[in-house]
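4.2 Preliminary Data

To establish feasibility before requesting continued support, the project team ran the inverse folding procedure on a target of 284 residues. The structure was first converted into the token representation described in Section 3, and no sequence information of any kind was made available to the design step. The complete token record follows.
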């Protein structure tokens, strides 16, 4: 890999469960969740520039460059470290926007990790995570680098082991705006907190997504996809939607279900990851 250029993956995540346990005075919701990395990724190219400019080289429909999290992440790292170098950023988007897969947050995290290496700014993981939190609550998880039990607004992370498995994921064809879900009057915000030990013991009866009922009410397409996939296992929505997923013990079982998904939906399989593909680029 050239010292002046990097190509890096930005993997998706699934929320194996998501509980809303309260609300802070500033309006942010208190959550508990388990983040699972999967091998479905966006890809980003980074090319070093000597002139200090941050330039996104390609158009992303609906996302102006100035508002793009990758541009904001690059400028945040530049400003925080005083780095005088710049970068050209190219984002190859595979993960759907408004899907609950953390694509934008993962893109931002990969930008921080990659430019920290390319620019030689050498910030340690904990400092990059603190920077990432300024961009979004899910960004620290992707910098954390492994599957995690998360609390607070999602930034308090503890590493967890999750089973090796395959997932079938369905994109129902709608974009779900996270604020619409969290501001819904129907959303319950008082789920009793659980312990990480409870999750590790795999007591499945407790594990639900508190946002799912609201999303299914507001977006019937999510409900339809969830109902269809539930015939094959314990299907859930990830994040605030719209994507829904179901775990399978092996790839052959996932393939079998994937072949039966109706053509009106985009669907794919993904393998569970235990570590972020860029974990080796981070200093603890």
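Position-by-position output of the design step:
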């Amino acid at each position: 890999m050239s010292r002046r250029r990097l190509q890096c993956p930005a993997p998706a995540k699934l929320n194996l469960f998501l509980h809303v346990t309260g609300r802070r005075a500033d309006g942010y919701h208190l959550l508990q969740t388990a983040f699972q990395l999967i091998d479905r990724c966006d890809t980003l190219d980074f090319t070093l520039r000597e002139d200090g400019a941050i330039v996104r080289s390609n158009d992303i429909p609906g996302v102006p460059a100035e508002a793009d999290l990758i541009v904001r992440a690059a400028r945040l790292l530049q400003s925080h470290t005083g780095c005088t170098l710049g970068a050209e950023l190219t984002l190859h988007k595979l993960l759907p926007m408004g899907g609950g897969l953390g694509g934008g947050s993962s893109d931002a995290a990969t930008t921080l990790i990659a430019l920290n290496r390319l620019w030689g700014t050498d910030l340690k993981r904990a400092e990059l995570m603190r920077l990432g939190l300024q961009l979004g609550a899910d960004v620290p998880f992707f910098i954390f680098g492994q599957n995690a039990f998360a609390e607070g607004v999602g930034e308090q992370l503890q590493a967890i082991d999750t089973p090796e498995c395959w997932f079938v994921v369905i994109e129902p064809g709608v974009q779900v705006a996270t604020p619409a879900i969290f501001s819904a009057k129907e959303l319950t915000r008082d789920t009793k907190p659980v312990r990480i030990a409870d999750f590790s013991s795999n007591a499945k009866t407790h594990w639900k997504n508190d946002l799912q009922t609201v999303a299914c009410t507001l977006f019937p397409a999510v409900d339809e996809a969830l109902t269809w996939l539930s015939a094959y296992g314990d299907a859930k929505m990830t994040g605030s939607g719209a994507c829904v997923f179901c775990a399978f013990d092996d790839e052959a079982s996932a393939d079998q279900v994937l072949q039966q998904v109706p053509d009106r939906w985009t669907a794919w399989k993904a393998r569970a990851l235990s570590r972020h593909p860029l974990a080796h680029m981070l200093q603890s």
